[in-house]
Target: Permease of the major facilitator superfamily
Amino acid sequence: MQKTQRFMPQERRAVSALASLYAMRMLGLFMVLPVFMVLGRELEGATPALLGLAIGVYGLSQAVMQVPFGALSDRFGRKKLIFIGLGVFCLGSVVAALSDNIYGVIFGRLLQGAGAIASVLMALLSDLTQEENRTKAMASVGMTIGLSFALALVLGPLISGFAGLAGLFWATACMALSGMILLYKVPTPLQQRRNLETIVLRSALRNVFQHKELMRLNWGIFSLHMILTAMFVAMPVTLADKFNMVADRHGWFYLAVMGAAFVFMIPLIIIGEKKRLLRQVFTGAVWLMAVALMIVMKGVNDFIGFTLAVFGFFLAFNFLEATLPSLVSKVAPAGMRGTAMGVYSSSQFFGAFLGGVLGGLAYQKFGLMGVYGLCTVMAVVWGGVSLFMPDPPYTASYVLPLQPFNVDAADKIAQELTQIHGVEDVTLVIEEHLAYLKIDRQRFDEKALINYPLTAQVEG
Model:
């Protein structure tokens, strides 16, 4: 039975190590964002379009390699694939650090993204945690991703201020090496479990692509990261060229607006979840982003106006970034969370890729206003799409271990579980002896599961 309980000591060590490893890798990818468009202008052959490609190209290799890395880890082992992925990431960082021309940096960034270990990390986390602690473990890793992004916006300008662009890439190489060392502290699982909360199943991909609400959310994360990456084509140049802010001070600007946005985001999450107004707050956040981007276009020569608009942008971004994965988890049918999150992650990385490419092209052709205009159009389109978003189900995942059962008993079990008050959806996996439930926590009758006759469905 799935009950809330504390991590066991070995689970705590595993979660801590994997979260730290994830954070190191995310720092390495993101630290370049706030300064690259300014410092990269010194690279041989650099043009705004090529600089934008260098910023976003990691997203292309990330999106392409996510599923293959996960599949290979099922066959050859999680830790081996994570080690290889970190090695590829480190190699890409070294290539970028040694390059004095834009093409070498583009290739280095492509290699950085090719070490796509996110899905393998989540699968390893699943192997090393109990069913009842898995959601909490994934939430812990999710928080480190958000914190690492905010920290990257501060550390990137600081490190590049005394070590230059090459020093920034050397720092990411060192982080990758540190991650490879840290990997040895992660326990090796006794067995690998193909948990449906973390793996991508090819047989379930068609269902995800045919699911209207999941595809609406995938469009959302695609748009969000396309806008974010394109914004980092324009914002560093705006701060440097319009407001004469040296690159190593950009981090303090981002720290101030991101910190304030994070504080103001918390009430939005509380209102959305506790008051069950998530659809209204979500749609409002998308339109807040659109309005903030419109103001950025008008306030590009006014530092106070620009700062307030960027604050509004990050307020919306932080809320949407935190809410979208939760919505995918709520909307995904029981037992399809891993596949749904796999498609979601690929959409996110493709968005980052196109944001860099199209943002760079827009800057080269139309200047800063072209980039901010592109972002505004994307936000307005997303705002229109979000208007048709239905109220999301306020459900959570619940994993119920069962005694071994056969195909003949499966229909009866599913029927009985579906009749329990608050159970919205049921997926049974015979090989795992598990039932994946979608439950409404406010209506869920957990006592009915305590009395559920698990032994009545024993195989044979």
Q: What stands out?
A: Confidence is low (pLDDT under 50) at residues 455-460.
